[in-house]
Amino acid sequence: MGQKHKPRSGSLAFYPKKRAKKETPSFSNAGLAEQETCVPLNFVGYKAGMSHVIGKNMHEKSPSYGMSTSQAATVIETPPIKIFGIRAYKKDAYGLKVLGDVLAEKADKHLLRKIKAFREKKQKKGKGSGAKEEKKEEEKESAKKTTVSDLEKDLERIVGIRLLAHSQPAITGTGKKKPEIVEIMLSGNSEEQLAYAKEKLGKELSIEEVFKEKQFVDVKAVTKGKGFQGVVKRAGVKIHRPKAKHKRVMGSIGPWHPATVMWTVARPGQLGYQCRTEYNKKILKLGSDVNEINPKAGFTNYGVVKNSFVLLAGSVPGPRKRLIALRTNMRKGITEKIKLEEIEKIVN
Fold first, then answer.
1. Could you tell me if 69 and 110 lie in one domain?
2. Is the pTM of this model over 0.85?
3. Which of 26, 90, 261, 264 is the most exposed place for a label (fewest CB within 10 A)?
4. For the residues 304-312, what does the mean pLDDT come to?
5. What is the DSSP string of 172-237?
6. How far apart are CA 286 and CA 34, in angstroms?
7. Which residue range(s) make up the domain with 312?
């Protein structure tokens, strides 16, 4: 009889707490699509700051039902993103693998800061053998490139199609030009996804095409980095009495025999700059009139919102100027403590 082997089970919560590998958040699973047609399911934006909204609370079981209530809200600037490619996935024994990428003919000038493959090779002057060799190499490279017709032929192998897109921070108040690259997930079957991707290739995608007002979304971002911290701030360990020799430490980190430190013991280390997901944030407002939300002096450490924006109920992880990923919600059965049907005033 073979030896039994079972990996450990159960949640480790957020252990280990270490710095995120990348600052650009990405979703591996798509949310629930309300429409039957093929629609994009996620988007990205930049956190501008916070405000609060005043409106009537329409939650019947709330003590403040029918009264004007104030609710904190986060402003996320969402300029349109550009679709520069189509990515097809196939499935094998190890999971999803990339079958092929179809890229747009022309690339945005700021995208060249991120991807160098779009840069055109300089042709050498002259009619020698070197020029002929370069032409042959170019022909070989063009033959290797995947096209939309190739994807249509391999439609049976395709499990899903996603859009390759990049943000446009140059038209925002973040002060940066180098864009972030994200994958936009689509609903529907492979045929509908490919037809939608062909239509959108090389064009812009706006936030209004993805989300609606009063809709619930999931938010993912990298939190504020707080550096190396002790166990009291990092794990909430109780401070020792005043007579103790050391107050902000663990009482014991483990036994002498066997001499070991368990992973469950709180230890000092990195706090913050970790990727976190928050579920079911309600979109209070989705608009393009920036005068409704911009303070007179602009948002602190951000500036003025110049593009379309999303007003989300509650807080969002990350500091100002951090890229925030939005997705249609995955968890149903939402209970709202404060239900604002109409916004009376946005206090800047």
1. no
2. yes
3. 264
4. 95
5. SSS---PPPEEEEEB-S-HHHHHHHHHHHTTSEE-GGGT--TT-EEEEEEE--EEEEE-HHHHH-P
6. 18
7. 14-79+211-245+265-348
Would you say residue 254 lies in a domain? no
Phi-psi region of 198 (alpha: psi -120 to 50; beta: other; left: phi over 0): alpha
CB hemisphere CA count around 120 (13 angstroms) = 7
CB 237 within 8 A of CB 266: yes
Report how far apart, in Å, the C-alpha atoms of 247 and of each of 243, 251, 263, 268 are: 9, 9, 22, 14
- CA–CA dist 98, 161 (Å, integer): 10
Same domain, 190 and 108: yes
Mean pLDDT for 25-46 is 87
In a domain, 168, yes or no: yes
Q: Does residue 180 have a pLDDT over 80?
A: yes
Tell me the percentage of the chain whose pLDDT exceeds 90. Answer: 65
Domain count, the chain: 2
CATH number at residue 48: 2.40.30.10
Same domain, 75 and 222: yes
Cα gap 259→122, rounded to integer Å: 64
Checking if the pLDDT of 128 tops 60, the result is no
Pair of tokens at residue 307 = 């593009």
282 and 195 in one domain? Answer: no
CA 182 → CA 89, 100, 109, 309, distances in Å?
15, 16, 17, 19
In a domain, 305, yes or no: yes
Q: Is the pLDDT of residue 283 over 90?
A: yes
Closest among 252, 233, 256, 234 to 244, alpha carbons compared: 252
Residue 222, C-beta contacts closer than 8 angstroms, at least 6 positions apart: 20, 23, 25, 273, 274, 275, 276, 317, 318, 322
Half-sphere exposure of 85 (CA within 13 A, CB side): 20
In a shared domain, residues 75 and 85: no
Does residue 91 sit in the same domain as residue 158? Answer: yes
Mean pLDDT over all residues of the chain? 89
- Residues belonging to the chain: 348
Q: Is 60 exceeded by the pLDDT of residue 129? A: no
